[in-house]
Amino acid sequence: MNILDLDHSLTAQAPISRLLESGRAKRLDLLDLGPKLRLWSSERTWRRFAERLQQRPRHSGPQPEIFFVGSGDYHHLTPAFLTDLPEPASLIHFDNHPDWVRFAPRRHCGSWVNQALKLPNIQRIVTLGPCSDDLQNPQLKGGNVRALKRGVLQLFPWQRPPSKVWGRVGDGAGHRQQENLLHWRNLAELDWPVFLEQMIASLPTRAVWITLDKDVLACEDAATNWDQGGMRLSHLLQAIRALAASKRILGIDICGEYARPAFSNALKRWEAKSDQPPAERWSEADLLRNATTNQALIDLFEELFP
């Protein structure tokens, strides 16, 4: 496992410290790049990150490469993990936000899905779990509904009312259109094991990559820099187990820790203050949920990929 130390959020957790001390994980020191990468990044800083990532110790064998990344403010680093996949793959994306905004900077935590869609070995992206207001009038907010129309992106909210759209989007695996509304196939209303079986069977590739932002989880299971979704940890663990049983998992990246704000410029500080809930909503006890959830993930990974 790889611990990308961008913001101190991971190394302070007991499960991560134990991984590092035992040699079961390697730490990549990226603290110097953390503030410049957080929320969004220039191409120059992005290239520096990609170069440093290539210098990490590589593991051999069939087991997936696993990355713990830190705050969800770094979710736009995911495409760097996907650039040299050995075969075509489907990207399974757990998140409380669709991260599909077309008007944001290219390397932005709210727009990275569009970059992943351009990668030659990514055949489909399936986003699971959004509850956020990004799906309210998504076109006005820059949402890439064209990808839904093309079928290269499938989106299954955890719980959202219909979304107003303009023009013909058409029906998809996670929605159906009636006049100017997209009615979502809400996961909270479905039989979860049956849904997983159907979703996995429909994937166009034998290989998958899993990317997880823990803000997809309910507040009982995580405390992040962003607003929380409604999925429970038990649902997430069941999904990973089902994917591992039926598909070859090439890799997994996990973000969504809570990290105190530390940004490289005033614009980022303003954006975080405008978009993110106040940090005061979490107590120190609340933040311990992240370590508990990470321990559960580590236990599952070590069971599935010994």
From TrEMBL:
SUPFAM superfamilies, alphabetized: Arginase/deacetylase
Gene3D superfamilies to which the protein is assigned, alphabetical: Ureohydrolase domain
InterPro entries: Ureohydrolase_dom_sf
Protein name: Arginase
